[in-house]
Each structure stands twice: as structure tokens, then as C-alpha cells.
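To fix ideas, we quote verbatim one protein's residues and C-alpha cells.
>
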Amino acid sequence: MNANRHRLIVVSNRLPLVFHRESSGAWRVDAGSGGLVSALLPVLRHRGGTWIGWPGTSDACAELDPILTRTSAQAGFALHAVHLTAEEVQDFYHGFSNEVIWPLFHDLQPLCNFDPKYWRGYCGVNRKFAQVIMRNSNQEDFVWVHDYHLMNIAQDLRHLGCGSRIGFFLHIPFPPPDLFLKLPWCRNLIEALLEYELVGFQTLRDRRNFAECVKAVLENSQIVGRGQIVTAFAGAKRVRIGVFPIGIDFNDFLRQTATPQVAAKAKELHTLLPNRRLVLGVERLDYTKGIPHRLNAFENLLTRYPDLKEKISLIQVVIPSRVGIPDYDDLKTSIEQTVGRINGAFVRPGGWVPVWYVYGSLTRIELLAYYRAADIALVTPLKDGMNLVAKEYCACSMEEDCVLILSEFAGAAAQLDSGALLVNPFDIEGVADAIVHAYEMDAAERSGRMRRLRRSIRKYDVFWWVDSFLSAAFTKQLSDFPLPADYAADSVEDYFAPD
């Protein structure tokens, strides 16, 4: 069957919009942000379809539906809201999603809060999503569910009599059995995920972890195959499990970066910070992003390589996230204290400031200008499903005279290892040395490395990702799916055989 003949129903926790109630009482609608939105918006604009998700507020549900109808006409695809109460948001989103799954899947089990009411809230909201999908889809549609918030949806849809094809893609890492089995509801989630016809992961490691968890939880289950897609057999179930590293809309980033507005803003940054190399870190506030470790590494650099003082500056942009949650407020305070300590110790009279700290949301032009102005990007999460910042930076590096330093624990490392400098973000001295390596790298090597990165990111863009996933969902021959040529395969992670 041809996947292009089927309407695409995208389902995610959040709609690709942000609603703000202004002082007048009217609603303002802004475009959403984040990796999922930046990846899927161009796809739905390109092929049409429907996006179903929570509008991000539990207020005035009836008022939002007419706004969504008008916005749908402008966007070129339909938008349908799943309305949640404040209690549902607390237990499903703040509770199970962000206090259980997020830390557990990022190897931070001590931060988990296994409150049983969170699981009940998660199950209830997933059922509510399934009901909205049933009202806004038909049997010929392909339902594509995204991320850890909604792992139960296929099971709920089947209980409601849904006969559509249903696929699932996990944007964050999947943990190994020694972590996953600590989840009290681990069997429930495995059984729910096996109700999908296709389950996709970012990396071979994530797929291997999932396969091992299936075998650990379900007796007589087997994983068979090799390459991009393997098959899980569990009782009467036969489920495809694939590796689909997500990409970006490379050409769109390139076009926008080339505009005079971005060029002027990038030049302004170099005017404000003259005669030095600019190192950029930009991510939302989250304990998985390794921001304190990165700052400590930069401090170590200035201590061990004093000749680089006044020749290099770190621009650290932190985008607000989950404001009001104590752990995130504490992280913000820690980051700001560390920035203050570094600047207090190393600042020089006359204007040189080691760390330029920016806390706040960026406009699109500002973000692209930062990317274009930076000589070195420091992308060092402690654990990440993919990390699209690394790919966006490369796409915006038009002159190809720059260096990407990337955590080996980011999913993007498997694809970008041929051009990036890979580091262990916990190795403070190792990260500092990588910055020095990037600083001292000659122009020919910088250009060669960045050219390889950009070629791979352009080839395996967001449209390749969508086509790859949908083709896997509708094609019978698994032999048609070799791994991407630029994807570094672990010698054991991509081979499976029956026990």
C-alpha cells in the first residue's frame, strides 16, 4: 500500500500552539517550540492531515475550539484539542510523565516518584486522547502517536474498536532492563506498546534496550531480524521495531539563516563580543542537558589554559521550562550561581566577560543568529534521545568554518560522529580539552568536518524521517530497509536472533 494515500493523524501531548490569555481576556495564539514541533510542522504543512493534542491550558475549553477551527484553516491542516482538567494535568503530565518516565528513561531513577495515582491519571488521559482520535479519524487514516506521554493509546484505541494502522515513535531514550524493570507498571507499558503495528526509536541502543525489556517481561517472546527494522513476536502479536533517527528541515533552516535580518543580528553579536571565539550552548532548562557540567568544564578550561583568557567566551542560553517546579527552580539558581562564580573569578577590566548568560525565550531570528555567529557549539546533554540543536547548528553554519562538540550520550552522536568532536559530558577536563582542540583546529579540518556533518543532515532530513517511518508501516518487505549509510552501528546492537 502507498502511505501517501492515507491521511496522517499526528497525536502528541501538546498541540503545536501556545495559548496565552491577555489582560483583556482575549486569547493570543503563538507557535509552539521544541523538537517535535519543529520536526512535524513542516511535514503536515507539506502533506496535510490532522494534529491532535492538549492545548496546554485547562481554562476555558469551550472558548478554544473556535480558535482552533480558524487556526486550522490558516495552517493547512486540522487541529483538534484534548481538553484536560487541572487534576488530570497534575497527575498525567507533571506526575507520571515528568516525575516517573522522564527521569527513569534518562537514567535518573532516584528522581522518580512512583505514586500510584500518577499511573491512574496517565491511563485516564490516554483513554481520553483515544476517544478524541476516534471522533476525528476513520479506518483509512494512519495514526502516528508521539512520545512517552501517550504510550497506552494503541491499546485504548483497540478497545474502542479502532481498525486504523497505528504507529508510535519515542523521541527520548529507552532505558535498559535494569532500570525499566524498576517501574511498577513495566509490564503494562510493554503490553501497551506491543499493540502498535510499528514502534520507532531514535537509535540502535534504544531499540536494543526495548527488545531486551520485551524478552525480560514477556515469556516466550522473541526478537528476529537485522538492519533498520526487526520484528518482535510475543504470543499472537507481531510488531515491527525500527530505528528512525529524526532530522530537521535543513533547507528551511538554510533559507532563514541566509536572510539579511539574521546576518545583521549575527554581526551584532560579534560587535558586542569582538576579537574572540564564541562558544555557544543553547537549550531549555532541564537537568538532563548537562548545563552545570558544561559551565564547570569552561571554568576548568580557563584555569588550565590561561592563555585563552580574553580570546574565548561562552554564550549560554537557557530557555525557561517547567517554571515553578522546585527541582527546575533549584537548577536555575545553581546555574546562575556558577555563572556568577566564573565571571567573578575571571572577568577582566575593559569588557571581557567569560560567560554571557541569557535566560529567556528567543525569537526565531535570534536563535538562528546565535547559531550563525558561534564558532563552536557545545552540545553536551547527559542523555538525549536525539538532540536537534546539534543538527540545527550545523544547518545554519553556512560558512562551514566552525566546530560541533557533541555528547556521546546524545542520539545524534551515532550519525554525526564522523564530523563532530565527541565528549563524555561527565568528563570535565575532557570537555575542556575538546574546546581547546576546536579552538586550535586549522581551517581545512574545520571545513572538512562541518561539510560532512551538513551533507549527512541534509540527506537524512525530517522528510526522510517521515517517509522512512511511513514506508516501514506500509511496506511488507523488511529487506527494503537497510540502516542509513551515515549511521554508526554497534557491532552487536543491530543483530538479533531467536533465543
